[in-house]
Amino acid sequence: MRQVPYTKLADLCSAVFAARGLSTADARYVGEIVTLTEAFGIKTHGVKVVLAVAGQVGEKIDPSAQPKVVAESGATATIDGQGVLGQLAMRLAKELAVAKAREHGAAMVGVRKTSWIGAVGPFLIDIAEAGLLATATAQSSACLDCAPVGGIDATFSTNPMALAFPTGGDPVVADFSTACYSMGKIGQLIRAGKKAPEPVFLDKQGALTDDPNVTDEEGSVLLTGGRNFGHKGYALSLWCEALTALSGGNANNPDLPQTQSFSLTVIDPEAFAGSEYFLAEMKRFVARVKASRPRPGCDPVRLPGERGFAALREAKDSGVPLDDKIVEQLNELASANKVGVTL
Fold first, then answer.
1. Which has more pLDDT, 298 or 74?
2. Mind spelling out the 3-state secondary structure of the chain?
3. Res 250 pLDDT > 90
4. Which GO terms describe its molecular function (predicted)?
């Protein structure tokens, strides 16, 4: 394990994307957001995005393409991602949604047809730090990861959702799959030779199992709530698909090229009960939540995102913890792209 300086990691990631053809500003934005994601502790969707996607820029992904607003009203907008990196489409979505929410009280932006966006939660941090509430959903058009409740054949990707809101201190930030595991987490289990703590997978005959390897053998992962309460994740996953169709993207359809679509909703509390009241009330309430008596092994009671902010501060002070293999792969990627930054 290595502790890599935060700014150096961001510099390398940015330089790789610039070498692949992105503009300096676009490359810097992507490099910064994947570094933030990694430092926040979402290691399945942090610098692994660089390793997975950078090689596609200049090949499958046109580095000169830009997301385009194709429909707009007072409080809404629709963006065609035109196959760009999802991070760049989300940057435009945030700019529009925040400005429209400030003007109208709430705003929603739908985005269709981008490449992999990575984790959606980190994009919401600065929105919440600016005193606004935000929620986002994402979907992959052709991934067959999850079966509907009562079914065997997969018809959903793991359809992530995220939310964030201010509290007067660190905002609450939650980022989660609508399945029991994201595919990134499943990959971690497989590489570690581990099984899930309970049966949350279906094999291709529909039998429950704790073995993640069935997902590589026409099996699937259960939706959030698992075998007894999966109807909850099922409804949320359907909602992600509906919002995708709203933007003009493709709800899950493996017969079409794989793209990603997402939605972003931003709310300004000033337009409702007022920002001052909202912050005071949330500050009071989260203090009450954290004062709940902790269960054994759960001291202290934490809020969503609390571990992430602690990890982020530690990473900025002492470096981002990276496995030696990941460091080696990033250095190899930098060398292959003639980038003069190494970790």
1. 74
2. CEEECHHHHHHHHHHHHHHCCCCHHHHHHHHHHHHHHHHCCCCCCCCHHHHHHHHHECCCECCCCCCEEEEECCCEEEEECCCCCHHHHHHHHHHHHHHHHHHHCEEEEEEEEECCCCCCHHHHHHHHHCCCEEEEEEEECCCCCECCCCCCCCCECCCEEEEEECCCCCCEEEEEECECCCHHHHHHHHHHCCCCCCCCEECCCCCEECCHHHHHCCCEECECCHHHHHHHHHHHHHHHHHHHHHCCCCCCCCCCCCCEEEEEEEECHHHCCCHHHHHHHHHHHHHHHHCCCCCCCCCCCCCCCHHHHHHHHHHHHHCEEECHHHHHHHHHHHHHCCCCCCC
3. no
4. oxidoreductase activity
Q: Which distant-in-sequence residues (6+ apart) come within 8 Å of 302 by Cβ?
A: 290
Which pair of tokens denotes residue 53? 């996607």
pLDDT at 117: 92
Find the range with the poorest average confidence among 122-131, 234-243, 252-261, 278-287: 252-261
Identity of the amino acid at 256: L
The answer on pLDDT for 249 being more than 90 is no
